[in-house]
Amino acid sequence: MNATKRNYRATFILDNRGKEETVDQIIDGVKKVIVDVQGDVTAVENIGKKDFIRVTDKRLTGATYVHVNFAAPAAAPAQLVERLRLNSSVYRTFIQSA
To answer: For the chain, which domains are there?
Structure first.
């Protein structure tokens, strides 16, 4: 059965404080997770580091924002959030239909 794919735009806030990984390596890891949930990455846009409007952690006042456009089955966003939940390099994940 071939599942119908939908278009999504995900925004990731990346936290690489105290880690050996560069932002590009973290993005490659996120792209691999998207492929693991049967998604096809169509575009990646690194927005750069931005300061937070509301600071919830005084040790983290800003982080790198990345937009990723991808096509995936309807169940993929929930699976993606669940898989990235344990990844300490991904601070926040926002996924919306495109």
So the answer is: 6-93 (3.30.70.60)
